[in-house]
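Intended use. Records like the one below are meant for learning the mapping from a protein sequence to its folded structure. Do not use them to infer anything beyond what is encoded.
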Amino acid sequence: MPDDDQSSAVLAARKTLYDAGIKIRREVTGAEHVERSTANITDFSKPMQDFATEAGWGGLWSRPGISRRDRSLLNLAMLTAMGKDMELGVHVRGAVRNGCSLVEIRETLLNASGYAGLPAGLAAFRVAERVLKDMVEKGHYLIALLESEYPRNSHETFSNSKFTLALWGTNTYACAIVLKVFMTKWKLRTVVKALVTKTTVMSEVDYLCANRNYHRADQMRDQDSRKLG
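Structure written out for the chain above:
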Protein backbone atom coordinates (compact mmCIF):
# COMPACT_ATOMS: atom_id res chain seq x y z
CA MET A 1 0.00 0.00 0.00
CA PRO A 2 1.43 3.43 -0.92
CA ASP A 3 2.42 5.68 1.97
CA ASP A 4 -0.36 8.20 1.23
CA ASP A 5 -3.00 5.47 1.22
CA GLN A 6 -1.61 4.03 4.43
CA SER A 7 -1.69 7.44 6.12
CA SER A 8 -5.27 7.97 4.99
CA ALA A 9 -6.30 4.57 6.36
CA VAL A 10 -4.64 5.30 9.70
CA LEU A 11 -6.32 8.71 9.95
CA ALA A 12 -9.70 7.18 9.09
CA ALA A 13 -9.25 4.49 11.75
CA ARG A 14 -8.23 7.08 14.34
CA LYS A 15 -11.26 9.23 13.47
CA THR A 16 -13.55 6.23 13.93
CA LEU A 17 -12.04 5.56 17.36
CA TYR A 18 -12.18 9.24 18.30
CA ASP A 19 -15.83 9.63 17.30
CA ALA A 20 -16.80 6.51 19.25
CA GLY A 21 -14.64 7.56 22.19
CA ILE A 22 -15.92 11.11 22.55
CA LYS A 23 -19.51 9.84 22.49
CA ILE A 24 -18.84 7.28 25.23
CA ARG A 25 -16.78 9.77 27.22
CA ARG A 26 -19.70 12.23 27.25
CA GLU A 27 -22.20 9.52 28.19
CA VAL A 28 -20.07 8.22 31.07
CA THR A 29 -18.47 11.35 32.55
CA GLY A 30 -21.01 13.93 31.42
CA ALA A 31 -20.87 16.57 28.72
CA GLU A 32 -19.93 19.31 31.20
CA HIS A 33 -16.80 17.44 32.29
CA VAL A 34 -15.75 16.78 28.70
CA GLU A 35 -16.24 20.45 27.81
CA ARG A 36 -14.09 21.51 30.77
CA SER A 37 -11.40 18.98 29.86
CA THR A 38 -11.21 20.07 26.24
CA ALA A 39 -11.72 23.82 26.70
CA ASN A 40 -8.07 24.59 27.39
CA ILE A 41 -6.40 22.13 25.03
CA THR A 42 -3.20 23.51 23.52
CA ASP A 43 -1.10 22.33 20.60
CA PHE A 44 1.16 20.71 23.19
CA SER A 45 -1.59 18.81 25.06
CA LYS A 46 -3.87 17.94 22.12
CA PRO A 47 -2.03 14.70 21.16
CA MET A 48 -2.48 13.39 24.72
CA GLN A 49 -6.17 14.31 24.82
CA ASP A 50 -6.71 12.68 21.43
CA PHE A 51 -4.86 9.56 22.54
CA ALA A 52 -6.96 9.28 25.71
CA THR A 53 -10.18 9.62 23.73
CA GLU A 54 -9.12 7.27 20.92
CA ALA A 55 -7.34 4.54 22.88
CA GLY A 56 -9.06 4.70 26.26
CA TRP A 57 -12.64 5.61 25.45
CA GLY A 58 -12.83 4.52 21.81
CA GLY A 59 -10.57 1.46 22.03
CA LEU A 60 -11.34 0.06 25.50
CA TRP A 61 -14.72 1.36 26.63
CA SER A 62 -16.34 0.42 23.31
CA ARG A 63 -15.30 -3.22 23.55
CA PRO A 64 -17.86 -5.98 24.15
CA GLY A 65 -17.51 -8.53 26.93
CA ILE A 66 -18.15 -6.53 30.10
CA SER A 67 -20.65 -3.79 30.81
CA ARG A 68 -19.90 -0.11 31.34
CA ARG A 69 -21.08 -0.57 34.91
CA ASP A 70 -18.41 -3.23 35.53
CA ARG A 71 -15.76 -1.13 33.80
CA SER A 72 -16.63 1.72 36.16
CA LEU A 73 -16.12 -0.47 39.22
CA LEU A 74 -12.81 -1.74 37.83
CA ASN A 75 -11.65 1.84 37.29
CA LEU A 76 -12.60 2.80 40.84
CA ALA A 77 -10.47 -0.02 42.23
CA MET A 78 -7.47 0.72 40.00
CA LEU A 79 -7.55 4.48 40.55
CA THR A 80 -7.79 3.93 44.31
CA ALA A 81 -4.69 1.73 44.16
CA MET A 82 -2.82 4.30 42.06
CA GLY A 83 -3.87 7.21 44.29
CA LYS A 84 -5.21 9.23 41.36
CA ASP A 85 -7.77 11.33 43.21
CA MET A 86 -8.75 13.64 40.34
CA GLU A 87 -9.46 10.77 37.95
CA LEU A 88 -11.17 8.82 40.74
CA GLY A 89 -13.65 11.67 41.24
CA VAL A 90 -14.49 11.67 37.54
CA HIS A 91 -15.11 7.92 37.58
CA VAL A 92 -17.19 7.99 40.77
CA ARG A 93 -19.52 10.30 38.88
CA GLY A 94 -19.32 7.99 35.87
CA ALA A 95 -20.08 4.95 38.02
CA VAL A 96 -23.34 6.52 39.19
CA ARG A 97 -24.23 7.43 35.61
CA ASN A 98 -23.54 3.81 34.64
CA GLY A 99 -25.96 2.50 37.27
CA CYS A 100 -23.66 1.60 40.17
CA SER A 101 -25.26 1.91 43.61
CA LEU A 102 -23.76 3.64 46.62
CA VAL A 103 -23.25 0.25 48.22
CA GLU A 104 -21.38 -1.09 45.18
CA ILE A 105 -19.16 2.00 45.01
CA ARG A 106 -18.44 1.85 48.75
CA GLU A 107 -17.62 -1.87 48.74
CA THR A 108 -15.38 -1.53 45.67
CA LEU A 109 -13.35 1.20 47.40
CA LEU A 110 -13.26 -0.79 50.64
CA ASN A 111 -12.09 -3.93 48.86
CA ALA A 112 -9.39 -1.97 47.03
CA SER A 113 -8.14 -0.49 50.30
CA GLY A 114 -7.50 -3.99 51.65
CA TYR A 115 -4.97 -4.54 48.87
CA ALA A 116 -3.77 -1.00 48.14
CA GLY A 117 -3.45 0.12 51.76
CA LEU A 118 -5.46 2.14 54.26
CA PRO A 119 -4.11 5.60 53.27
CA ALA A 120 -5.16 4.98 49.66
CA GLY A 121 -8.55 3.72 50.79
CA LEU A 122 -9.20 6.63 53.14
CA ALA A 123 -8.28 9.12 50.42
CA ALA A 124 -10.60 7.36 47.97
CA PHE A 125 -13.50 7.50 50.42
CA ARG A 126 -12.97 11.24 50.92
CA VAL A 127 -13.04 11.82 47.17
CA ALA A 128 -16.09 9.62 46.60
CA GLU A 129 -18.10 11.17 49.42
CA ARG A 130 -17.35 14.69 48.19
CA VAL A 131 -18.42 13.82 44.63
CA LEU A 132 -21.58 12.00 45.72
CA LYS A 133 -22.59 14.85 48.03
CA ASP A 134 -22.11 17.31 45.17
CA MET A 135 -24.24 15.16 42.86
CA VAL A 136 -27.01 14.93 45.44
CA GLU A 137 -27.03 18.67 46.15
CA LYS A 138 -27.24 19.53 42.45
CA GLY A 139 -29.93 16.95 41.75
CA HIS A 140 -27.63 15.01 39.41
CA TYR A 141 -27.54 11.84 41.50
CA LEU A 142 -31.20 10.94 41.14
CA ILE A 143 -31.29 11.91 37.47
CA ALA A 144 -28.28 9.68 36.80
CA LEU A 145 -30.02 6.77 38.51
CA LEU A 146 -33.14 7.30 36.43
CA GLU A 147 -31.21 7.50 33.17
CA SER A 148 -29.25 4.35 33.96
CA GLU A 149 -32.54 2.52 34.53
CA TYR A 150 -34.43 3.96 31.57
CA PRO A 151 -32.27 4.15 28.43
CA ARG A 152 -32.45 7.07 26.05
CA ASN A 153 -35.45 7.02 23.73
CA SER A 154 -37.44 5.14 26.34
CA HIS A 155 -40.47 6.43 28.19
CA GLU A 156 -41.84 5.55 31.59
CA THR A 157 -44.76 6.85 33.60
CA PHE A 158 -44.96 6.70 37.40
CA SER A 159 -48.42 7.07 38.94
CA ASN A 160 -50.27 7.10 42.22
CA SER A 161 -53.46 8.75 43.44
CA LYS A 162 -51.90 12.22 43.45
CA PHE A 163 -49.64 12.39 40.47
CA THR A 164 -48.50 11.09 37.14
CA LEU A 165 -44.98 11.88 36.05
CA ALA A 166 -43.57 11.10 32.63
CA LEU A 167 -39.81 11.03 32.12
CA TRP A 168 -38.12 11.03 28.74
CA GLY A 169 -34.45 10.02 28.67
CA THR A 170 -33.98 12.01 25.46
CA ASN A 171 -34.39 15.34 27.27
CA THR A 172 -32.21 15.34 30.36
CA TYR A 173 -32.75 19.01 31.17
CA ALA A 174 -36.54 18.76 30.96
CA CYS A 175 -36.38 15.60 33.05
CA ALA A 176 -34.34 17.45 35.70
CA ILE A 177 -36.71 20.39 35.79
CA VAL A 178 -39.86 18.28 36.02
CA LEU A 179 -38.27 16.21 38.77
CA LYS A 180 -37.28 19.28 40.79
CA VAL A 181 -40.69 20.93 40.41
CA PHE A 182 -42.26 17.65 41.36
CA MET A 183 -40.18 17.44 44.53
CA THR A 184 -41.45 20.81 45.72
CA LYS A 185 -45.07 19.65 45.72
CA TRP A 186 -44.94 16.39 47.64
CA LYS A 187 -42.90 15.01 50.50
CA LEU A 188 -39.43 14.22 49.21
CA ARG A 189 -39.20 10.74 50.68
CA THR A 190 -42.50 9.62 49.12
CA VAL A 191 -41.51 10.93 45.71
CA VAL A 192 -38.01 9.48 45.80
CA LYS A 193 -39.35 6.08 46.89
CA ALA A 194 -41.81 6.09 44.00
CA LEU A 195 -39.14 7.00 41.46
CA VAL A 196 -36.14 4.93 42.46
CA THR A 197 -37.58 1.68 43.82
CA LYS A 198 -36.28 -0.13 40.75
CA THR A 199 -32.81 1.38 40.81
CA THR A 200 -31.63 1.66 44.38
CA VAL A 201 -31.93 0.39 47.94
CA MET A 202 -33.65 2.28 50.72
CA SER A 203 -30.38 3.23 52.42
CA GLU A 204 -29.62 5.31 49.34
CA VAL A 205 -33.00 7.01 49.56
CA ASP A 206 -32.18 7.86 53.18
CA TYR A 207 -28.85 9.32 51.99
CA LEU A 208 -30.63 11.45 49.41
CA CYS A 209 -33.15 12.75 51.94
CA ALA A 210 -30.45 13.56 54.49
CA ASN A 211 -28.16 15.39 52.10
CA ARG A 212 -30.33 17.19 49.56
CA ASN A 213 -29.85 20.96 49.54
CA TYR A 214 -32.34 22.93 47.49
CA HIS A 215 -30.45 25.91 46.05
CA ARG A 216 -31.83 29.32 45.12
CA ALA A 217 -30.64 28.74 41.55
CA ASP A 218 -32.75 25.59 41.44
CA GLN A 219 -35.79 27.52 42.67
CA MET A 220 -35.39 30.18 39.99
CA ARG A 221 -34.97 27.58 37.25
CA ASP A 222 -38.00 25.71 38.56
CA GLN A 223 -40.16 28.83 38.38
CA ASP A 224 -39.37 29.11 34.69
CA SER A 225 -39.96 25.40 34.19
CA ARG A 226 -43.55 25.43 35.41
CA LYS A 227 -44.52 26.24 31.85
CA LEU A 228 -43.91 22.54 31.22
CA GLY A 229 -47.07 21.62 32.95
